[in-house]
């Protein structure tokens, strides 16, 4: 048997370090067994998927040194490698499941589903929603079908409680209960598959032998095993890796930590060091060495050395490791080359010059004007914000509300950022000039910089959000009670504007 693994990210935002972490372990497992590593793009969410996000995923993984044997850009014998281009395949297997009675068309409206959930909650029922809860009488189905009403296709699952064993490479046999397995949607009303159907079909057709993914998918494994059985296919070997955690043990998220690979690239982390650090997430070398290359990790890789304790993504530890790589693996010439490629290159210069050229009298004016573009978190204190017109609490609201809104932004550029800030300023009754002043300071360290929305666009989403979070902390932070009050005001503002 030839080992075949895959990574299947969704192109719906910045490439996530969690994707790189899972990709690294899939890559090393395949390489260690002389197998193949595939990249598949999960773009069935047509509303949120973008070509720009897909390209960022490809570029980021390659920047880290993780290449793939088959994928959307280099092809292969099992393509296409974008799920949006495989719709006919999914439809074929949905028809098979319907014909065999393993799935059903569900015409329930969103209002009916809400009412059903409310009734179950009020009755104290906490088991999953089953087919018997959803299937309408035959005459009602026929009526809604004749009216052309939309429907989804859901899978049949056992109605009764009972054990469902799942074999995992790291955990052995994990026993889940069918009472918690719902009648999962397989095909959405727009004709696109859900994750559950698409991944089972694709993993089978692409010959994936080992599904190595995050532990958040353990509870979905019974549905996937059932689909393999329904379709008469062999089930691949499952391995669920522990999730990356914030220092407070919560799941790694952009609300508490920068999560975009682009952020770490923009911050000046070395790809070798970041990959080294991700390799240490729940895994260790046989000799317990902390600094190692991708090649060395691959040669020594044993997935049984993965620890099930949630690995902590600690920026201080990453900084220490990155420093080791800088000091131990580069002479002055090599480091100069890295610096030039990182930020001091012509592409970056040409991107920023149009924003500062009119402010320059001498070439030496350039660095003071753009120095903040090359920095990480700025050395700010409350004194940097004291000259602004808004009081401190209002500044905190501006920064926090802006951060919350920017976290929802799908496309990151000046044209998308400005309307968000303008809507918030209008909703809060603050002049735009005064509203953006604390954002100016947070992003550039001064209100005398070039356009803050231009700067935010150039800095990127995660770097901008990191600086906003840092400035919120500088201004005293937002505790739980204040956050609750801010959240209520924020939601009210959004609902009225």
Key traits:
single chain; 497 residues; mainly alpha; Glutamyl-tRNA Synthetase, domain 3; Arc Repressor Mutant, subunit A; 3-stranded antiparallel beta sheet; two-stranded parallel sheet; 9 strands; globular; Glutamate--tRNA ligase; GluRS_core; aminoacyl-trna synthetase; glutamate-tRNA ligase activity; aa-tRNA-synth_I_cd-bd
Structural commentary:
- This protein has 497 residues and is mostly helical.
- Among the domains are: 89-187, Glutamyl-tRNA Synthetase, Domain 3 (Glutamyl-tRNA Synthetase, domain 3, Alpha-Beta Complex); 369-496, Arc Repressor Mutant, subunit A (Orthogonal Bundle), CATH 1.10.10.
- It is 48% helix and 8% strand.
- The chain is built from 21 helices and 9 strands.
- It has helices at 17-32, 51-64, 87-99, 110-122, 131-134, 138-146, 195-205, 221-230, 261-267, 271-279, 294-300, 315-329, 332-342, 346-356, 366-370, 392-406, 414-428, 432-444, 452-459, 461-474, 480-496; strands spanning 4-7, 36-39, 103-106, 152-155, 163-168, 172-177, 185-187, 210-214, 237-241.
- The protein has a 3-stranded antiparallel sheet. Strands 1-2 form a two-stranded parallel ribbon.
- 34% of the residues are buried.
- The model has no long low-confidence stretch (mean pLDDT 94).
């Amino acid at each position: 048997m030839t080992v075949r693994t895959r990574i299947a990210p969704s192109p719906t935002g910045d490439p996530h370090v969690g994707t790189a972490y899972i990709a690294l372990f899939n890559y090393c497992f395949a390489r260690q067994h002389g197998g193949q590593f595939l990249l598949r793009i999960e773009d069935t969410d047509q509303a949120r998927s973008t070509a720009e996000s897909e390209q960022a995923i490809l570029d980021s993984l390659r920047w880290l040194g993780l290449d793939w044997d088959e994928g959307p850009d280099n092809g292969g014998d099992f393509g296409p490698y974008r799920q949006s281009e495989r719709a006919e395949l999914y439809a074929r297997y949905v028809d098979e499941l319907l014909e065999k009675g393993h799935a059903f068309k569900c015409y329930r409206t969103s209002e009916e589903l809400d009412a059903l959930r409310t009734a179950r909650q009020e009755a104290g029922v906490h088991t999953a929603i089953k087919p018997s809860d959803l299937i309408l009488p035959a005459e009602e189905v026929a009526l809604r079908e004749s009216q052309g009403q939309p429907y989804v296709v859901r899978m049949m699952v056992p109605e009764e409680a009972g054990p469902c064993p799942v074999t995992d490479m790291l955990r052995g046999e994990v026993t889940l209960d069918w009472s918690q397995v719902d009648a999962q949607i397989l095909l959405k009303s727009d004709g696109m598959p859900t994750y559950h159907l698409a991944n089972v079909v694709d993993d089978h057709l692409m010959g994936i032998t080992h599904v190595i993914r995050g532990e958040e998918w353990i509870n979905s494994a019974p549905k996937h095993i059932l689909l393999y059985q329904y379709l008469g296919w062999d089930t691949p070997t499952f391995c669920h890796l522990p999730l990356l955690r914030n220092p407070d043990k919560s799941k790694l998220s952009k609300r508490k930590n920068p999560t975009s690979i682009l952020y770490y690239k923009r911050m000046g982390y070395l790809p070798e060091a970041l990959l080294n650090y991700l390799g240490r997430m729940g895994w260790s070398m046989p000799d317990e060495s902390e600094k190692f290359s991708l090649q060395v990790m691959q040669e020594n890789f044993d997935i049984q050395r993965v620890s099930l304790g949630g690995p902590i993504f600690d920026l201080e530890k990453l900084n220490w490791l990155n420093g080791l790589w800088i000091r131990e693996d580069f002479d002055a010439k090599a480091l100069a080359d890295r610096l030039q490629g990182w930020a001091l290159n012509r592409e970056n210069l040409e991107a920023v010059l149009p924003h500062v050229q009119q402010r320059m009298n001498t070439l030496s004016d350039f660095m003071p004007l753009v120095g903040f573009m090359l920095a990480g978190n700025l050395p700010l204190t409350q004194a940097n914000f004291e000259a602004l017109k808004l009081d401190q609490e209002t500044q905190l609201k501006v920064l926090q509300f802006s951060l919350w809104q920017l976290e929802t932004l799908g496309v990151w550029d000046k044209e998308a950022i400005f309307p968000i800030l303008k809507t918030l300023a209008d909703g809060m009754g603050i002049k735009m000039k005064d509203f953006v002043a604390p954002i100016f300071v947070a992003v550039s360290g001064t209100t005398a910089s070039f356009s803050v929305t231009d700067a935010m666009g150039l800095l990127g989403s995660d770097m901008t959000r990191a600086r906003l979070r840092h400035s919120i902390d500088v201004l005293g932070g937002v505790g739980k009670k204040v956050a609750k009050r801010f959240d209520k005001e924020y939601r009210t503002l959004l609902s009225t504007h």
